[in-house]
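## retry 2 of 3
previous attempt timed out at serialization; input unchanged, resubmitting
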Amino acid sequence: MSSVPDINRKDLQDLQKLSRAPFLSYLQKQAQPKIPRSRASAAKPSAYPLLAAFAPKNLWKWISEYLRHRFGWKHPFPHYDGKDGDTGVYRLKGTDGEVRIALAGDWGSGTDEAACVAQRICEYQPHYSIHLGDVYYVGDAVEVGENFLGDPNPASKYTPCEWPKGSEGTFALNGNHEMYARGIGYFDFMLPKLGIRGNVHGQRASYFCLENNHWRIIAIDTGYKSVGLPVIEYVLQPDCSLPQELVDWLRTVVRPNSEDPRGIIILSHHQYYSRFDCCYPKPARQLAEFFTRPVLWLWGHEHRLVIYREAGIKGGVRAFGRCIGHGGMPVDLPTAAARHDYAVEFVDDRPYPNDENLCVGFNGFAEMTLSGNGLTLVYVDLNGTRVFSESWTTDRGHLVRV
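## retry succeeded, writing output
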């Protein structure tokens, strides 16, 4: 059971097996109870939870919300024009010679478990907090408020969840669920309230770079092109490629090259590769223009914690992949059968004892601490247990495992 249970928060059972198809995500949203369950009823998950979406009072709302949010122009892709001096590249600031960065993916669920993870992040006292994307169910303005910004939903009796802020900056990446509502909730309601401390317009775009003399943390947007045109997207599947504005920004503003002595960390929502799920190689092939040495790459999208050995796809960058998509959704326990042959160093396969009697894993986040040319990553679960840790140094741009 979570350490800060709240009977007014959302239940994991309503988010379990959530489809990545937009139409079905809208369906599952309507199946969620309109008021919080009692703990006694939460312990007995319904065998057919989605049937609630077909009730007469829910069916029209399901269809109308889908049509209203999905049909229409996608939100324009914001980029840095540099007119006010904001180029999307920010100098890392910390205290006592170190910089603390909290990272979690797929956190925006509004569950008890998400609230627990937020509490653990606050205890870490990060200088920066970065969400790797996905606010559920469909990332519209109301869900962005309720499940990320901590704003109460007038039509809901659920207690809202607020993403913890860093003392120097708070950022969020774009995910496919944000784009299920055409990105409007994410770009217009979420980003203006985030960004580097003191930046009056908030987080200007869905990509950015945090850097110092030893490290560069480059966040990219794989979500914007993860969703296509309604219906057509099921035939011509999107490839999560990076928008041209982002590639141009890398080429002209960030300008990474082989002479740069700093270690590179990539952040994205979608996985580059996976042992358990599908792969999204297109962004890695676009990044190959800029990075000739292996990078450390953290992503979400899959709801699990996995530490991969160095790998890559032909034409793409080499990367040490870390999947941290276990922030707030029901965590998938690993299956015996592998979908792809990528070597795993560690996977958290512990069953999470919960008051809903679900067979799921532990939620958690990553603590990244930078000190000089050293980097430490500690993976912490919602109870504060350190599950796995690793340390790196950078030697003239080359990543060295300590």
